[in-house]
Amino acid sequence: MNWKNKVFKNFKLYAVTDLREEAPSVLEKVEAAYRGGADIVQLRSKTLSDAALYRLGLQWRRIADRYQKLFFVNDRLDLALAVGADGVHLGQEDLPIKGVRKIPAGRRVFIGRSTHSLEQALAAAKEGPDYIGVGPIFETPTKPTYQPVGTDLIRQVARRVRIPFVCIGGINQDNLQQVLDAGARRVAVVRAIFEAEDVEQATKDIKKIIDGHFVNKKRGQVFVKPD
């Protein structure tokens, strides 16, 4: 198993950007997130030009390789391939996964699909992604038109979906334990990392909560509450 497959198999913390400018501080924060313990960092922007995303992506690739961590791109398969990203995350209205799987041999990428209900999660799992996203768990300005799905959906997905799933949406240090107690094994974080004054320390603090949860669970101290 190469190091990228190993990182993906074991990932717990997925940091997602919400970029509004192309600036040196962007890559400094990305590097800080990797340094702090993020296993995957996603390039995501609703405003930057393709040229800016391409320039950032090429530099991002080098940073990810230096830390032997993964680099994913939101929505854009073309951009992911152009900058050599490890994965692409697709929304409900993006490309079908069977189409993405047709990319030439040697250019395989990990594929994720966003879901917002149990029905969507079950349908997405049948498409054959490497993982699905579940959320938004809590209210978040990055998805202002979506109603929070709450932690009950985590319990439902944990029971019914056999592929990896990542919980996302308004997750921070204050509510992370609720998410883990509901059955999440992987979480994606946006603002609690990238809007923190100290990105590296914020990432470390979140990773510490996750790691501590599973250490305690292994010792039999943490239980997922039944419905």
Topology:
Elements: H1 3-10, E1 13-16, H2 24-36, E2 40-43, H3 50-67, E3 70-74, H4 77-83, E4 87-90, H5 97-100, E5 110-115, H6 118-127, E6 131-134, H7 151-160, E7 165-167, H8 176-181, E8 187-189, H9 191-194, H10 199-218
Parallel strand pairs: 1-2, 1-8, 2-3, 3-4, 4-5, 5-6, 6-7
Helix pairs in contact: 2-3, 2-10, 3-4
Describe the structure.
This protein is of the alpha/beta class and 227 residues long. It has one domain: TIM Barrel (Alpha-Beta Barrel), CATH 3.20.20.70. The protein is 44% helix and 15% strand. The protein has an 8-stranded parallel sheet with strand order 7-6-5-4-3-2-1-8. Strand 2, helix 3 and strand 3 form a beta-alpha-beta unit. The C terminus is likely disordered.
Order of helices and strands: HEHEHEHEHEHEHEHEHH
**Helix content percent band:** 40-55%
| CATH superfamily (homologous) name | Aldolase class I
Largest sheet: 8 strands, parallel
CATH architecture: Alpha-Beta Barrel
In angstroms, what is the radius of gyration?
A: 17 Å
Strand order of the largest sheet: 7-6-5-4-3-2-1-8
Bulk shape: globular
CATH class: Alpha Beta
Low-confidence stretches: 222-227
Strand pairing plus helix content: what structural class? alpha/beta
Task: Tell me the domain tally.
Answer: 1
Q: What is the subunit arrangement here?
A: single chain
Mean pLDDT: 93
Briefly summarize what is shown.
With 227 residues, the protein is α/β, with parallel strands linked by helices.
Features of the shown structure:
globular; TIM Barrel; alpha/beta; 227 residues; 15% strand
